[in-house]
Each structure stands twice: as C-alpha cells, then as structure tokens.
Amino acid sequence: NKRVKIKTILEQTPIGQEITLMGWVRTKRSNKNVSFIALNDGSVITNYQVVADPNLIPEEILKKCTTGACLKIIGTVVKSQGAGQNSELNAKTIEVLGEADPEKYPLQPKKHSLEFLREIAHLRMRTNTFSAVFRVRHALAFAVHKYFNDKGFFYIHTPIITASDAEGAGETFKVTTLDISNPPRTPEGAVDFKQDFFEREANLTVSGQLEGELAAMALSEIYTFGPTFRAENSNTTRHLAEFWMIEPEMAFYDAEDNADLAEDFLKYLISYALEHCREDLSFLQSRLEEEEKSKPADQRSEMGLMDKLRFVVENEFVRITYTEAIEILRNSNPNKKKKFQYLIESWGADLQSEHERYLVEKHFKKPVILTDYPKEIKSFYMRQNEDGKTVAAMDILFPGIGEIIGGSQREERLDLLLKRMEELQIPIEEMWWFLDTRRFGSTPHAGFGLGFERMVQFVTGMGNIRDVIAFPRTPGNAEF
Ligand code: 4AD
Ligand code: MG
Fold first, then answer.
1. pTM: predicted TM-score of the whole model, two decimal places
2. Which CATH number applies to 126-157+213-467: 3.40.140.20, 1.10.10.10, 3.20.20.30, 3.30.930.10?
C-alpha cells in the first residue's frame, strides 16, 4: 500500500479503496464505541478524519494517538456520515511512528498567539496558520520563476559572499576566517586582510543587483532570486536581517518599461496565489477577520483579504513623482498632525513610513509607484535626470506594507556615473568590473528588487514579517 496524501484523497475520493495515510494528530475525540482522529499531513489545510473502532485498534495504541503524534494508518476510504467532509478513513491498523507526550508537547488544539509561536518556530509550521503561510510562500516562489521563464528571462545565481556593498549603506555582515580576538596586523597596525581567506575584506551580499547588471549586459533580460543580508538594527514588522529578494535587470528598458514590468509582475503573483491557494487564503482571511474583531471599529479594514488582493489586481497603480507626492502631503496635513508638517520646508527629505501610508491608504487607496526621488537619498547607480536634482528611481508602495519594491533606471553614461561616485567617495578602482559595462557596449537598462517576504506578507495578510519566513533572522535571533 502506497502512501496517499490528504490532498489526493480529497481530490479523488477513492471510496472503497484501502490506502495508507501518514500524518500528525491534530485532535482526538473518543467515546466508548469509537475514536475520531483528525489527521493532517501538510499537503492541504484540511484535516482528514480517521475513525478508529476500539474493537480493532488496541487501547494502548489509541492512548498514544495524542495531539502532535505521528501516525501511519492503513484503512478503507468510506463515505462520511457527518457533514463537512465527503469521506473518512476507517482504520484497520494504526502504527504510532512518533509519540508526542501531551505533558510536554507545546502545541495544544487551541489558539496560540503568534508571539508564543515565534518562540517555538521549530514547531509552528504544524499549525494551520503557518502551514497555510508556507504553502502560499511556496506558490509565490514558484510563480516568480514561472513568470520570468514564460517571458524569456534567465535566472542568474549571484554570489552570497562578495566584496561590494551595492546599496552603499554600510550595513553589511562581515565574512572572515581571521581570529577576531587577535587578528594578524600590518606593520602599520591595521588588520591585515591579505592574510584572510579571500585575501581581502568580504561581506554577505545586500543585493545581487550589480552582478545582475553584468548579466543583463550579456543576456538582455535576467532575474535573481536569492537571500540578501542587511545588518540594519531596525526592529520593525517589515525588516529582517536575512530576507529573499527578486531582482530582475533588463537591458534596453527605460524607467517606464521598468514600472510597467513591476506592476504586471506584482499583479501576476497575486493572481497566481488567488487561483492556486484558494483554501489557504480563505483560511487566512478568516484568521484576519477574527483579529480585526479585537480592534476598535474605526480601525477595522472594510475589505476581506481576498477582496483586497483582487482590488490590487484589477486596478491600475497610481504613478506620481516624489515632488508631486510632497505637494500632496503638504496640502493634506490630516488632523493638523505635526508629523506631516516638516515636509513643508524640506523637499529632499526621505519619506517616512507614515507618509507612505498616508499616500497609499488614505489619499489614493491604491498601490502607488513613486518616481524621480532626490539624488541625495538614493544610490549611486541611479540614472540622473535632466533637472540635475533627481534620479530615475522608482519605489512601489503597497497598502499595509509600505515599500515593497525599490528600483531604477541605471546610469549608463560612464562620465556621469564616475562623477557621482567621486561625489559619494565610492572607491572607483575597486569597482572597475562594474564600470567596464559602461566602458564596453553600454546601453540604457533598468531593474528593481522585490522584497519577497513583504510580498508574502501582503498576500497572506500576516502583520509581522517574522511570521512569513520559517526561521527569521532579526537582532538577537539566530538560534535555529
Ligand atoms: O530598496 P532596496 O534596498 O533596493 C535594492 O536593494 C536594489 N538593489 C534593488 C534593485 O534595484 N535591484 O531593497 C529592495 C526591496 C525593498 O523594496 C523591500 O521590499 C525589500 O527589498 N527590503 C527588505 N525586506 C525585508 N527586510 C529588510 N531589511 C529589507 N530591506 C529591503
Ligand atoms: Mg528601497
């Protein structure tokens, strides 16, 4: 007897067949005549009902079928008497593959808080909420590859260990084999990185973009999808020290082509999830509705999760420049709150998340593509606009999330790029390989980076980014 997954049973309902089912006990209800075991194997959110007759299954076995225990059951699929499910499994034999001592097993068949579950991240995937989140995450990752593959983009694997800091924010994790308590030193007393493994300083990548640009200058349209690392000490519900980023990079694209691709891509991912993760999304939607009930009435969201997702797919994103956004914020000043006022004086300031939220959630009530930011608040590689003040940057802001995508048209003109790098004191000699793309066969090109976890957050409605990655890396958290 081959193992059959619950997903397959629900799709095919093989009434009358003898099958083998394996999975983990969620709950057990017993009376004198019969035990009902709700089993889950992770293939779908639905638990499958196993009916155990105490005349067939020894009592010492049934006693071990407690929440969390892993079972192998051979039995016959029969039509279900009760409402809810078409079929159930009449157990012939039950083998306990792994017991779970009810005195010690931390997951009980009741609602646990997300905070508590974060403490037991090694077990939380066994809950409905987290198994749903990780199935949706999988579907989205698959959809990323499908989208780009169908469009003829090539998947490039950029290095995790690198010597460059693409974003120039100085928030890198160092990689070294030197004994940090007693490193080798140069005669001048500095740490002698020549004696390190790579014979230079190295760090974990913050972005695959620069390598992606090299690839786009050969293969035209590429994307990366890999882990990136940022040592920014921001303890928020939107930041991780290790997150996954998708970075398409396209030769011959200008800023508008870039925005068109980004909007189409985001809509595709959401549509894909709506089509392929219906049950999980509908579970997550009801979870959110429960959560909403505990909020004050005026803070509750009017739309359900799936309606919100459909709304984004069906409506055009708003496209405005940074300067226009500042104008809107200037004239808005809702409830005369102080926090919006400082913008009046300061064209050039970076938008705070309150400003982004105001634009997206209050003013437009739609995703917003914000373009042409002041060059001072953006990276060196962005293409400089005619006005001498702004660059062809693009951030995409989503409701409830804020910035989900950051991107730009790149500076392809060697002289302007060199000048900007000098202004920012970026070591030009070390970037010779990057600058070579501008020396040899340079062309307009553009790209963007989508923070994968922020996308998973948006689609699943999870409020904290720590709850959409299996093992979150945040300040003080790298145990398992
Ligand atoms: O805006 P960022 O820093 O842009 C880049 O890294 C560019 N090199 C991308 C490109 O043009 N190829 O990051 C891109 C996105 C952000 O919009 C956000 O969604 C996500 O990555 N992100 C984070 N996600 C989780 N935790 C963090 N600490 C993040 N920092 C950025
Ligand atoms: Mg950004």
1. 0.96
2. 3.30.930.10
